[in-house]
């Protein structure tokens, strides 16, 4: 009997030690890690860069809200501030979603990156045409762009510290410099500089970024560099370059990522990774139909390990260039859902983030944290 009591007392003391203090022990499939439950991803990287996340207003009403507050220091509205959603008609703005993200940020002391002011996708129908359905002139389009940027930037002035002003203006075609978008067809190259000027006039304190993807590709990288350098040389108010970073288990190579960062360091601007995710499938840049081999969507150990290696590679390089990189933003919160569940293959489940479907830190999370020296 006495022995039983002694065992119980010892067990309770052990439990008190393990669970009463802020340091908890949780065990994963293969690792046993001490977790400081008060510490989130942002805290491990606080001495290097702000860690951010792309969000929807809906996610902020779920249990993902707590995860955001604990792990991230900044938010980017995934869709709510894009021109289509926020300015659906010429004389009508839709503020509710963007405002709710701003209110959450304010209440929880998170920074906000605005995304974005001028893009060829998710644009409202009315912007390029007049009432008769004809394409508008350059003057009219620039005037509409100015009105849009001034109104949106003004509304969140002082609360949004950085804006992606122009998104994805560079062409993916090797022989073509700027994307053949409606913006370009109507205004020529000038719309890019104008967008920065309008944003700067509306909020002179906001950091203004040019943001693009597949920057690790040497041909595209050169074009992005050429554009940003030409803007800077012309005295356009541009303060940063956003590397989207939609990567995968098979790219970027160490060399590609290092060369990319080194190249942009030469511009003397802020560098941020603005849309980081690492797909567990090999990279494909274009949407395509589902194939029979797409049915295997398990998050296998092989996929997990490949993803861990890629995340480690990226963070080791980010830390090496910490003097130049000011922010790393993940594109979506957890593997519960991400845009990659529908791209490039509609309905193919992906697992691109550091938190799993149950919002628990994945092994990749701990491996990334371990890269901090
Ligand atoms: C691009 C855009 C983002 C988002 C992603 C896909 O990277 O910049 O806003 O639309 O595509 O989610």
Overview of this structure, please?
The chain is built from 12 helices and 11 strands. By secondary structure, the protein is of the alpha/beta class. The protein has 2 domains: 1-31; 33-369, Alpha-Beta Barrel (TIM Barrel). The longest helix has 20 residues, at 301-320. The protein starts with a helix and ends with a helix. Bound molecules: alpha-D-galactopyranose.
Question: What is the fold's blueprint, element by element?
Answer:
Blueprint: H1 2-20, E1 23-27, E2 32-36, H2 41-44, E3 50-55, H3 64-71, E4 74-77, H4 83-86, H5 96-107, E5 111-118, H6 138-155, E6 162-167, H7 182-187, H8 190-202, E7 207-212, H9 218-233, E8 240-243, E9 246-248, H10 254-265, E10 270-279, H11 301-320, E11 325-330, H12 363-370
Parallel strand pairs: 3-4, 3-11, 4-5, 5-6, 6-7, 7-8, 8-10, 9-10, 10-11
Antiparallel strand pairs: 1-2
Helix pairs in contact: 6-8, 11-12
Bound molecules: alpha-D-galactopyranose.
The site of alpha-D-galactopyranose has 6 residues, from loops.
Please sum up the structure shown.
With 373 residues, this protein is α/β, with parallel strands linked by helices.
The CATH H-level superfamily of the largest domain is Glycosidases
* Biggest sheet: strand arrangement: 3-4-5-6-7-8-10-11
Total beta strands: 11
Distance between the termini: 51 Å
Query: What is the ordering of alpha helices and beta strands?
Result: HEEHEHEHHEHEHHEHEEHEHEH
Radius of gyration: 23 Å
> Total helix count?
12
- Please write the CATH class name of the largest domain: Alpha Beta
Ligand set? alpha-D-galactopyranose
Largest sheet: 8 strands, parallel, barrel
Instruction: Based on the coordinates given, report the CATH architecture of the largest domain.
Output: Alpha-Beta Barrel
In CATH terms, what is the fold-level topology of the largest domain? Answer: TIM Barrel
Number of domains: 2
- Principal-axes shape call: globular
Mean pLDDT: 92
